[in-house]
């Protein structure tokens, strides 16, 4: 049991957010299995308030990138506070989002609120966050890479994905293989002694 738990932790420690994608296709069945794993997440009152829109059509991805880059240009030029820009500086991100068209798959996750065909959710943010965590773990386990991308604001995603207003965009996740020359920032994870308190 201990060996399995440690092996899983070691495997998860090798996960990184990737922003440079190869254009190689990924098996649809693998993405489907990862979404199935995500949808096993616990949720407030078991409402399961999530929707995963899987985009593979180049035209959909092109529209998504165009709209996201328009928002991000505004964000980096005007909307972000200096404090926020300073926090982003070590990661090296800017308004260019090539991964939205280069990745073979882009999953747009929605948080589903009360509507004509959906009940009121309880703790929707927490529930969808947990489901996204499982999705990230499942994709990593399958040998794929992804990025947790949060364009700000995100409402344009309803139109691009053809989803009703009670579904609120939560996160955009390009999925695929890393580009041959992909690089990731040299980040440090907090040690266990700092994040885990034993009493
Ligand atoms: C809620 C959330 C939002 C994020 N939004 C973005 C984003 O919009 N763009 C981006 O490049 N990275 C984004 N990230 C990725 C983080 O920068 C990344 O997870 C962090 O730097 C740690 O790196 P790692 O995932 O490789 O461990 C986001 C991560 C989270 C959890």
What order do the helices and strands come in, and which of them pair?
Layout: H1 2-13, H2 28-38, E1 50-55, H3 58-79, H4 82-88, H5 99-102, E2 105-112, H6 124-141, E3 145-146, H7 156-161, E4 167-176, H8 192-195
Antiparallel strand pairs: 1-2, 2-4, 3-4
Flavin mononucleotide binds at residues 16-17, 19, 91, 93, 147-150, 184, 187.
Could you explain the architecture of this structure?
It is a single chain. The protein contains eight helices and four strands. The protein has 199 residues and is an alpha+beta fold. Helix 2 (28-38) packs antiparallel against helix 6 (124-141). The mean pLDDT is 97. The site of flavin mononucleotide has 11 residues, from loops. InterPro entries: Nitroreductase (IPR029479), Nitroreductase-like (IPR000415), Nitroreductase/BluB (IPR050627). Residues 13-176 form the Nitroreductase domain. Keywords: Flavoprotein, FMN, Oxidoreductase.
Name the poorly predicted regions: none
Helical amount among residues, as a percent range? 40-55%
Class derived from helix and strand content = alpha+beta
Please report the total strand number as a whole number: 4
Shape verdict:
globular
Structure described in brief:
This protein is an alpha+beta fold and 199 residues long.
Q: Descriptors for this entry?
A:
199 residues, alpha+beta, binds flavin mononucleotide
């Amino acid at each position: 049991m201990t060996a399995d738990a440690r092996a899983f932790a070691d495997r998860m420690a090798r996960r990184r957010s990737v922003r440079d994608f190869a254009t190689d296709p990924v098996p649809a069945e693998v993405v489907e299995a990862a979404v199935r794993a995500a949808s096993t997440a616990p949720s407030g009152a078991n409402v399961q308030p999530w929707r995963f829109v899987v985009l593979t059509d180049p035209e959909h991805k092109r529209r998504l990138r165009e709209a996201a880059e328009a928002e991000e240009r505004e964000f980096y030029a005007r909307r972000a506070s200096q404090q926020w820009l300073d926090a982003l500086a070590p990661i090296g991100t800017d308004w260019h989002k090539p991964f939205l068209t280069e990745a073979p798959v882009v999953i747009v996750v929605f948080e589903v609120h009360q509507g004509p065909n959906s009940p009121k959710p309880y703790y929707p943010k927490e529930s969808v966050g947990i489901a996204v965590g499982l999705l990230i773990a499942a994709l990593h386990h399958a040998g794929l890479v992804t990025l947790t991308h949060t364009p700000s604001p995100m409402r344009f995603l309803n139109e691009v994905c053809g989803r009703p207003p009670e579904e609120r965009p939560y996160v955009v996740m390009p999925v695929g293989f890393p580009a041959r020359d992909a690089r990731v920032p040299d980040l440090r994870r907090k040690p266990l002694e700092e994040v885990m308190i034993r009493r």
